[in-house]
């Protein structure tokens, strides 16, 4: 790991939102609390957490949608907040693409799929005419859509899975190196989720696309990721290779999360409902505490220090 | 009477009258739910799961019509009920927890006012009695009664979901229809709520029609599972059997399409 430099290095990333609601007192929300993570080129890092844990905020910070309160995000060794020239910014925005949860609202209903794929190629690669046409067909085929059928269609004529493929194609079209995928399959039907995940895995393996995969579903994280980070209340509580984190979880929150993943072979009988609820409450309170110290339990497997229950 | 199923649905067909002609969303399904039983209904969006749920309570709206079949709950023909009987029957015999139930609370009414609407309307008790009943119900699902005068936005998603569940329990119905009740929640909260439902079910003995697309979850929760594809039930079997030995091609495909967590 030392000899290969990371593609993305997040160091001490902290984001505090100052909330000034129309009613009620102003207050602060610490969405990201001192987060340090790295992603190696051609690998996938999965950030797993419940809603409100800050996982999407992290994705948005990497996409440069806002500035951090403190800490840095470096892409290929360069601090992204320090990019001043238009060329640098454009280059970064081209290299880092985002795929959102809702595949329908991410596409313009008034334009064809061809339009969606042509725009990024024209803007970023300055392609025109026949070259543009063949590039559009190529990216369409790359995400396993038939160009002759798909290109002239409008978003509403495609299924959710096909639309998500178009979004991935758009990221490929501009030559993205890092794709931030924020719950890309959670709005899709179960029967097509797998195929979209398979496509992402193939993009990673055959084209060395790096992924920051944001999800609440640890099973899909295990399916696609080379590293996994568990987030709770703005902190990463545990991270490392998926098999280590899942088979030997250290942090109480990781253990709680894993114990709650539905296992079809274990039937719920209602016994222990109260104890599970009170345990969950205790673990949440524990995981919410800010803790600056980190231990390496096994090579590559880190856990944030916690008070024993 | 007791060995008869609580709910019996025979040859149910639901049509939608569209500009392009008749679209049959539910193509003649037969199923039954026993007393205290949890029947899981799985299938992808558009397969007709939610249409069945609405038809069972006769909450389907035009252009949907029930064109054929029968629905019998506790010996009573649901399709023959008069509007007046239907009003009494809904919620007191069958209640429903809707998809994204968190948003099915009225944002401008307090939690108590939402309970009051249901309780007073159906039982005609005084507001004070309704309040007592509401706090009793909240206690059942582990929410302090001090939250009774809060508005929905002051509660977390999981708490709102519990409130919706408590309102569904308010009149002690025989059947509760749950349409994707935990889809919007994270797994820990989902487990907490499902554990609570199982416990309450043991206490009150109601039956559940549980609709979800999460097969793993369904395996944990349901006694029997029915798999739906394009308006038809393609396979109905006890959960353990359906998981261990799926018969239909589509059931197998649904299973293989979900990455399951593998623990070393």
Task: Explain the overall architecture.
By secondary structure, chain A is an alpha/beta fold. Chain A has a single domain, classed as 3-Layer(aba) Sandwich (Rossmann fold), CATH 3.40.50. Chain A has eleven helices and twelve strands. Chain A has an eight-stranded mixed β-sheet with strand order 6-7-8-3-9-10-12-11, with helices on both faces. In chain A, a hairpin with a 7-residue loop joins strand 1 and strand 2 (27-39). In chain A, helix 6 runs parallel beside helix 7 (190-207). The two termini of chain A are 35 Å apart. Chain B is an alpha/beta fold. Chain B has one domain (37-55, 82-256): Rossmann fold (3-Layer(aba) Sandwich). Chain B has nine helices and ten strands. Chain B has helices at residues 49-56, 83-92, 111-123, 127-140, 157-169, 187-204, 215-221, 239-244, 249-256, and strands at 7-18, 21-33, 38-42, 64-73, 76-77, 94-97, 175-179, 207-211, 224-229, 232-238. In chain B, the strands form two sheets. A six-stranded mixed β-sheet of chain B has the order 6-7-8-3-9-10, sandwiched between helices. The longest helix of chain B has 18 residues, at 187-204. Chain B is globular. The N and C termini of chain B lie far apart (49 Å). The A-B interface holds A 50-51, 189-195, 197, 216, 218-220, 222-223, 243, 246-247, 256-270, 272-273, 276-277, 280 and B 44-45, 142, 157, 186-192, 194-196, 198-199, 201-202, 213-221, 239, 243, 253-254, 256-264.
A few lines on this structure:
The complex is a heterodimer of chains A (about 300) and B (about 260). By secondary structure, chain A is α/β, with parallel strands linked by helices.
